[in-house]
Hints:
The complex is a heterodimer of chains A (100) and B (172). Chain A has 100 residues and is mainly alpha-helical. Chain A has 3 helices and no strands. The longest helix of chain A has 31 residues. The radius of gyration of chain A is 17 Å and the shape is elongated. Chain B has 2 domains: 91 residues, Four Helix Bundle (Hemerythrin (Met), subunit A) (Up-down Bundle), CATH 1.20.120.1200; 32 residues. Helix content of chain B is 67%, strand content 0%. Chain B contains 6 helices and no strands. In chain B, 23% of the residues are buried. The model of chain B has no long low-confidence stretch (mean pLDDT 85).
Amino acid sequence: MITTSHYLVLSAILFTIGVIGVLVKRNPIVIFMCVELMLNAANLSFIALGRHFGQVNGQMYVIFALAVAAAEVSVGLGIIVAIFRSKETINVDEVNLMKS
Amino acid sequence: MATVIAFWVLAILSVVASIAMVVTKNPVRSALALVGTFICVAAFYILLSAQFIAAVQVIVYAGAIMVLFLFVIMLLNLGSPGALRERGSLQPIIATGLGICFLIALLLSGSLLSLPLPAGVRPAEYEPLGTVRAIGINLYDPNQPWLFPFEATSILLLVAVIGAIIMAKRKV
């Protein structure tokens, strides 16, 4: 019997893998992918809890999270392309313009 | 019984694919592993009777967003594994330890492991929850609070389009 707790634990595991990826990786594109993984984990728990309470509202939140994720990816990848044009690298250790 | 087997197979597949995304050095391989994770999550949505969201997940995430990622990886020529040198230090080990602490804290917090079933909800009511009809009726219902966020989302997407064009242009 698969309960809602199974889905919540799986969502927590996926979220943690995303957090570790953000902390470990040096490539901003892969960091973006890890952020997408964390968004997906949050969406999964939204839908699991929505079904748990028999409501469709959890899926509404997921629709808006999807739209925000699409907007975030388009702007973020544009910023990465712009940084690569000006500095010829996108390693997050070498791009430290805002560090005083 | 079939849902139990499907859950465990998909759970193992999604966790393995996401770990592979973090571990591999090649950005293209990690993008493909992330596509696998997204498709597993879409299958979870079908198991959770959210059919519309599952279709949107495959179209938007596994389709559009990952094509954008792969396009930028190829454009910046980061496909080779040695393109970005990973710093050899204690950071991955410390980050993994802290991440596992975070996971334990998440599991211990609140009622994650023992959710009470709400009264008056039977499993038979779960079935028509995520069809296009149910989503549409709920989304455009004037008595529900979703109509204004829906319109605001269109403004957000317009702003994102303009922002992406301005960011990627050589000269504004």
